[in-house]
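Protocol step 4 of 6.
Sequence for Glutathione peroxidase (Rhodococcus artemisiae) entered exactly as in the expression construct, tag removed. Do not edit the line below.
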Amino acid sequence: MSVHDFTVTTADGGTESLGVHRGRHLLIVNVASKCGLTPQYEGLEALHREKKDAGLQIVGFPCNQFGGQEPGTDSEIQEFCSVNYDVTFPVYGKIDVNGDDAAPLYTYLREQAPGDFGPDNGFLFEHVSKSRPEAIGTDEVKWNFTKFLVDAEGTVVRRFEPTVTPEEIAKQLADLL
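Step 5 output, C-alpha coordinates:
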Protein backbone atom coordinates (compact mmCIF):
# COMPACT_ATOMS: atom_id res chain seq x y z
CA MET A 1 0.00 0.00 0.00
CA SER A 2 1.09 3.58 -0.66
CA VAL A 3 -0.32 7.08 -0.41
CA HIS A 4 -1.12 6.82 -4.12
CA ASP A 5 -3.75 4.17 -3.34
CA PHE A 6 -6.01 6.66 -1.54
CA THR A 7 -8.89 8.60 -3.04
CA VAL A 8 -9.75 11.94 -1.45
CA THR A 9 -12.62 14.39 -1.70
CA THR A 10 -11.95 17.55 -3.64
CA ALA A 11 -13.16 20.94 -2.44
CA ASP A 12 -15.98 20.87 -5.00
CA GLY A 13 -17.27 17.53 -3.68
CA GLY A 14 -15.74 15.32 -6.34
CA THR A 15 -13.08 12.69 -5.77
CA GLU A 16 -9.48 12.35 -6.88
CA SER A 17 -6.95 9.59 -6.54
CA LEU A 18 -3.69 10.70 -4.98
CA GLY A 19 -2.18 8.51 -7.69
CA VAL A 20 -2.38 11.62 -9.92
CA HIS A 21 0.70 12.79 -8.01
CA ARG A 22 2.70 9.61 -8.67
CA GLY A 23 6.30 10.47 -9.52
CA ARG A 24 6.28 13.59 -7.36
CA HIS A 25 7.20 14.02 -3.72
CA LEU A 26 4.23 15.13 -1.64
CA LEU A 27 4.09 17.34 1.41
CA ILE A 28 0.67 16.62 2.92
CA VAL A 29 -0.51 19.25 5.42
CA ASN A 30 -3.63 19.60 7.57
CA VAL A 31 -4.47 23.29 7.35
CA ALA A 32 -6.72 25.81 9.11
CA SER A 33 -7.59 29.41 8.39
CA LYS A 34 -8.00 30.74 11.94
CA CYS A 35 -4.92 29.30 13.64
CA GLY A 36 -1.86 31.05 14.98
CA LEU A 37 0.09 28.94 12.48
CA THR A 38 -2.06 29.98 9.50
CA PRO A 39 0.70 32.29 8.18
CA GLN A 40 2.53 29.06 7.26
CA TYR A 41 0.33 29.13 4.15
CA GLU A 42 2.70 31.82 2.86
CA GLY A 43 5.74 29.60 3.37
CA LEU A 44 3.97 26.56 1.93
CA GLU A 45 3.03 28.49 -1.20
CA ALA A 46 6.59 29.81 -1.57
CA LEU A 47 7.95 26.28 -1.16
CA HIS A 48 5.44 24.98 -3.69
CA ARG A 49 6.42 27.60 -6.27
CA GLU A 50 10.13 27.12 -5.64
CA LYS A 51 10.18 23.30 -5.74
CA LYS A 52 7.28 22.23 -7.96
CA ASP A 53 9.49 21.96 -11.05
CA ALA A 54 11.94 19.86 -9.00
CA GLY A 55 9.18 17.36 -8.22
CA LEU A 56 7.47 18.56 -5.03
CA GLN A 57 3.69 18.80 -4.75
CA ILE A 58 2.13 20.33 -1.65
CA VAL A 59 -1.44 19.32 -0.82
CA GLY A 60 -3.63 20.73 1.93
CA PHE A 61 -6.43 19.15 3.89
CA PRO A 62 -8.54 21.57 5.95
CA CYS A 63 -9.45 20.25 9.39
CA ASN A 64 -11.62 21.74 12.14
CA GLN A 65 -10.59 19.35 14.94
CA PHE A 66 -8.18 21.71 16.70
CA GLY A 67 -9.87 24.56 18.53
CA GLY A 68 -12.53 24.95 15.82
CA GLN A 69 -9.98 26.84 13.74
CA GLU A 70 -11.34 25.79 10.34
CA PRO A 71 -15.08 26.51 10.63
CA GLY A 72 -15.75 27.49 7.00
CA THR A 73 -17.27 25.54 4.16
CA ASP A 74 -15.01 24.10 1.48
CA SER A 75 -15.96 27.01 -0.79
CA GLU A 76 -15.12 29.58 1.91
CA ILE A 77 -11.80 27.85 2.59
CA GLN A 78 -10.88 27.96 -1.11
CA GLU A 79 -11.68 31.67 -1.24
CA PHE A 80 -9.66 32.35 1.93
CA CYS A 81 -6.63 30.52 0.52
CA SER A 82 -6.83 32.34 -2.79
CA VAL A 83 -7.52 35.84 -1.50
CA ASN A 84 -5.18 35.83 1.51
CA TYR A 85 -2.26 33.67 0.38
CA ASP A 86 -2.65 33.24 -3.41
CA VAL A 87 -2.49 29.47 -2.86
CA THR A 88 -1.94 27.53 -6.09
CA PHE A 89 -1.39 24.06 -4.60
CA PRO A 90 -4.45 21.81 -4.17
CA VAL A 91 -6.48 22.29 -1.01
CA TYR A 92 -8.89 19.36 -0.85
CA GLY A 93 -12.19 18.99 1.01
CA LYS A 94 -12.37 19.36 4.79
CA ILE A 95 -11.62 16.17 6.74
CA ASP A 96 -10.99 14.76 10.20
CA VAL A 97 -7.41 13.62 10.83
CA ASN A 98 -8.00 11.87 14.18
CA GLY A 99 -10.73 9.79 15.79
CA ASP A 100 -13.39 7.45 14.51
CA ASP A 101 -14.16 9.66 11.51
CA ALA A 102 -10.53 10.21 10.49
CA ALA A 103 -9.94 10.08 6.75
CA PRO A 104 -8.34 6.73 5.84
CA LEU A 105 -5.39 8.63 4.34
CA TYR A 106 -4.62 10.19 7.71
CA THR A 107 -5.00 6.91 9.58
CA TYR A 108 -2.36 5.54 7.20
CA LEU A 109 -0.08 8.58 7.49
CA ARG A 110 -0.19 8.44 11.29
CA GLU A 111 0.62 4.71 11.29
CA GLN A 112 3.55 5.19 8.92
CA ALA A 113 5.00 8.22 10.72
CA PRO A 114 3.78 8.40 14.33
CA GLY A 115 5.79 11.53 15.03
CA ASP A 116 8.09 12.69 17.77
CA PHE A 117 6.11 15.35 19.59
CA GLY A 118 7.75 16.44 22.81
CA PRO A 119 8.87 19.39 24.91
CA ASP A 120 11.19 20.57 22.11
CA ASN A 121 8.00 21.73 20.35
CA GLY A 122 7.89 24.58 22.89
CA PHE A 123 4.70 26.63 23.11
CA LEU A 124 2.72 24.06 21.12
CA PHE A 125 3.73 21.20 23.41
CA GLU A 126 2.59 23.24 26.41
CA HIS A 127 -0.70 24.07 24.68
CA VAL A 128 -1.44 20.49 23.60
CA SER A 129 -0.43 19.18 27.04
CA LYS A 130 -3.17 21.36 28.54
CA SER A 131 -5.85 21.22 25.85
CA ARG A 132 -5.41 17.64 24.55
CA PRO A 133 -3.30 15.75 27.11
CA GLU A 134 -4.69 12.42 25.86
CA ALA A 135 -2.90 13.00 22.52
CA ILE A 136 0.59 13.16 24.02
CA GLY A 137 2.49 9.93 23.37
CA THR A 138 0.11 8.77 20.62
CA ASP A 139 0.31 8.82 16.83
CA GLU A 140 -2.49 11.40 16.66
CA VAL A 141 -1.97 14.58 14.72
CA LYS A 142 -1.43 17.08 17.52
CA TRP A 143 -2.45 20.33 15.81
CA ASN A 144 -2.95 22.20 12.55
CA PHE A 145 -0.06 22.33 10.08
CA THR A 146 1.37 18.88 10.79
CA LYS A 147 3.22 17.90 7.62
CA PHE A 148 3.91 14.45 6.13
CA LEU A 149 6.61 14.05 3.49
CA VAL A 150 5.96 11.30 0.95
CA ASP A 151 8.42 10.15 -1.70
CA ALA A 152 7.69 9.82 -5.42
CA GLU A 153 6.66 6.17 -4.99
CA GLY A 154 4.07 7.06 -2.33
CA THR A 155 6.06 5.94 0.73
CA VAL A 156 5.79 8.09 3.83
CA VAL A 157 9.30 9.40 4.55
CA ARG A 158 8.76 11.47 7.67
CA ARG A 159 6.47 13.64 9.72
CA PHE A 160 7.12 17.26 10.61
CA GLU A 161 5.30 18.60 13.64
CA PRO A 162 3.45 21.94 13.28
CA THR A 163 6.26 24.06 14.69
CA VAL A 164 8.57 23.01 11.84
CA THR A 165 8.22 25.76 9.25
CA PRO A 166 8.11 25.34 5.48
CA GLU A 167 11.41 27.24 5.33
CA GLU A 168 13.06 24.65 7.60
CA ILE A 169 11.62 21.84 5.48
CA ALA A 170 12.97 23.47 2.31
CA LYS A 171 16.51 23.13 3.63
CA GLN A 172 15.97 19.41 4.26
CA LEU A 173 14.50 18.82 0.79
CA ALA A 174 17.60 19.90 -1.07
CA ASP A 175 19.11 16.40 -1.03
CA LEU A 176 15.80 14.65 -1.70
CA LEU A 177 14.69 16.53 -4.82
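Step 6, annotate. The chain has one domain: 3-164.
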